[in-house]
Design brief:
By secondary structure, the chain is α+β, with helices and mostly antiparallel strands. The chain folds into 2 domains: 86 residues, Alpha-Beta Plaits, CATH 3.30.70.940; 73 residues, no CATH class. The protein has 3 helices and 12 strands, in the order βαββββαβαββββββ. Strands 7-11-10-9-8-12 form a 6-stranded antiparallel sheet, covered by helices on one side. Strands 2-5-1-6 form a 4-stranded antiparallel sheet, with helices on one face. The longest helix is centred in the middle third of the chain and has 12 residues.
Length: 188
Amino acid sequence: MSTGPQLHALSDPPPFLGLNGDVTDEKWFAIHTFARHEKVVAQEIQALGMTSFLPLVKQVRQWSDRRKVVEFPVFGCYVFVKLVPNHEERLKVLRVNGVLRFVGINGVGLSIPEEQIKAIRVLLEEKLPVCSHPFLKLGQRVRIRNGALSGVEGVLIARNGERTLIVSVDAIQRSLSVQISGYDVEPV
């Protein structure tokens, strides 16, 4: 009987979900973080040499003595990371301070289509007034055909008589909405 510390081999976690094709290609995944840890997690992932994406929006905050423009995560408690879906990369991310788990069934990562990440980037780069929107799964899926948002896909709805496009990230069940008056859309 040994009295020294016992080392247990780490068992391989279940494979990532939603992967098609070669598992040596980098894929996007969402990671769930502790509240208000998104910026630190994104920076630490970058420091590891991995690609992270934290969509931020600017909001004016009022205090009793001043007003200040502050950047907030669009999707609170979530950061996106692009990695090769293997055990080593997964462990690197899970060891970052502030990371809770990969988004998916039982903490197993669910890959996010590149098009969804690109759509969010386009909306934020154009500095359009976006806001978080309840996740929608049903509705008419459309693609914008012209202008700065050409190629962006989402769900078309009408809100207060205005045409609004909802861009969703299925894995984290979060969405952004943006008014698209003046843009031509086509069904997907």
